[in-house]
Amino acid sequence: MKIFTGVSGNVWRMGASQALMMTVMNVNLTNTALVGSLLAPSPWLITLPVSIQFIAVMVATIPASLLMAHFGRRLIFLIGVLMVAIGAFGQALSILTESFAPLVISSFLLGLGQGVAQFYRYAAADAVEGAEKAKAVSFVLLGGLASAIIGPEIAYRTVDLLPNSLYAGCFIVTGLVQMIAIPIIWGLDIPPVKRQKQQGRSIAKFFQMPSFLSGLIAAALGYCIMTFLMTATPLQVVDVSRLSHEANARVIQWHVVAMFAPSLFSGMLIVKFGVGKLLWAGLACYVAATIIALSGTSFYIYLGALIFLGIGWNFLYVGGSSVIANSASPEERGRVQGIADFCIFSVVATASMLSGMAHSELGWAVMMMIAFAPIFLIAVALIIGRPKLTNQPA
C-alpha cells in the first residue's frame, strides 16, 4: 500500500507508540466512566476521571512543547510513557482501595502522559514537507487501528481479572502494555532542534491566518463533539439501555476502528482532493452520526452512530492537524503546535466534563441536539477560512 512507501524508522516507531498509547486510552474510554459510577460520591462526578485526563492533556501541551525544544523529543516521550504507566497502576489501586480521589489523581497523571504523546504526530510531520505532512500524520494515527482490536479486548476480558475488584485488572494490564513503548521510543533517532536567532512570527500572527484558524477550529470542535458523545456512550449503553459490558466494548471497539482505519487513505485523499473536501466529508459523517443516534436505543443504533462518529473524527483531526503543521516554519513549530494542542484540549476537556452532567440531567437525545451547534460552527469556519496545504508555510 502506498501509505507504507518510504516510511522512515522514526515514523514507524511513532506509529507503534501511538498504538500502545491508544490501547491505554481505549480501556479508559470503555471502563473509566463505569468505574466512576461505582466510586463517585455524586452522579455529576461520574465522568470527572475521564474529564481530568483531558484537562491534564491540555495542561501538558505547552510545557511538553517547551521541554522538547530544550531536551529533545525522545527524553520527554519516555517520561510521558512512565507517567501513563504509573497513572494506570494508580487507577487500579484506587479500585482496590475503593477510593475515588486516587482515581482522579491517577487519571490526571495518565493524562499528562497522553499530552506528551500528542506530539507523536507532529514528530512525524516535522520530517516531511508540504502535503506529505498529511501522510505522516495519517500514518501515525493509523497506529490507533491496532489499539482498536487490543484495547476493547483488554477492557472486556479483564473486567473481573482480580476477584472482588471489578475493572482493576484492566488498568494493571494497560500499565504493563504501556511500558512496552519504552524500548521502542528509546530507539528513536531524532536530531535536536537547532536553535535559531530568528524565532519566526508571533502566535498572534497565526490567529490572524484564516486557513490556520479554520484548521484549528475543525480539529478542536471535531474532537470536542466526538468526546462529548463518546464519553457518555458507556453510561448510555450499560446503565440506561441495560446492554452488556461486551456490547459496550464492541461499540467502543468499532468506534475506535472507525477513528483510525481511515488513516489508511485519509492522507492520500488530502493529496488527491485537498484538505478542505476531507474536512467537509468529516462534517457530513458527524451529521449522519447524530441522526442515527436519535433513531433508537438498540445495539446496532449505537454501533452505527459511533462508527460514523469515528470516521468524522479522523477526517477532521487529520485534516485540521495537517493544516496546523503546514502553517509553521521549522523554528515556529514547537510554539505553534503547543498552543494549538492547548486550544484543542481546552475545548475537549470542557466537553468531557459536561458530557456526564448533560447525560444525567438532559439525556441522550438532547445531547445529540446539542452536538449540532459545534457542527454548525465548523461549517462556518470552513466556509470563511478555506483551509489548504501548501509546499511552504504561508
**CATH architecture field:** Up-down Bundle
Strand content is: under 5%
Largest β sheet strand count, sense and barrel closure? none
Helix content: over 70%
What is the name of the CATH superfamily?
Answer: MFS general substrate transporter like domains
Element order: H for helix, E for strand: HHHHHHHHHHHHHHHH
Number of domains: 1
Distance, first to last CA: 31 Å
Total number of beta strands: 0
What Rg do the Cα atoms give? 20 Å
CATH level-1 class:
Mainly Alpha
The geometry reads as: globular
Uncertain stretches of 5 or more adjacent residues: 1-6
Tally of helical runs: 16
The gist of it:
This protein has helices at residues 9-39, 48-71, 73-96, 100-117, 120-125, 132-157, 168-179, 181-186, 203-206, 210-240, 245-260, 266-273, 275-293, 299-327, 333-361, 364-385. It is an all-alpha fold and 394 residues long. The longest helix has 31 residues, at 9-39.
Itemize the secondary structure elements and their pairings.
Elements: H1 9-39, H2 48-71, H3 73-96, H4 100-117, H5 120-125, H6 132-157, H7 168-179, H8 181-186, H9 203-206, H10 210-240, H11 245-260, H12 266-273, H13 275-293, H14 299-327, H15 333-361, H16 364-385
Helix pairs in contact: 1-3, 1-4, 1-6, 1-7, 1-10, 2-3, 2-4, 2-15, 3-4, 3-7, 6-11, 6-12, 6-14, 10-11, 10-14, 10-15, 10-16, 11-14, 12-13, 13-14, 13-16
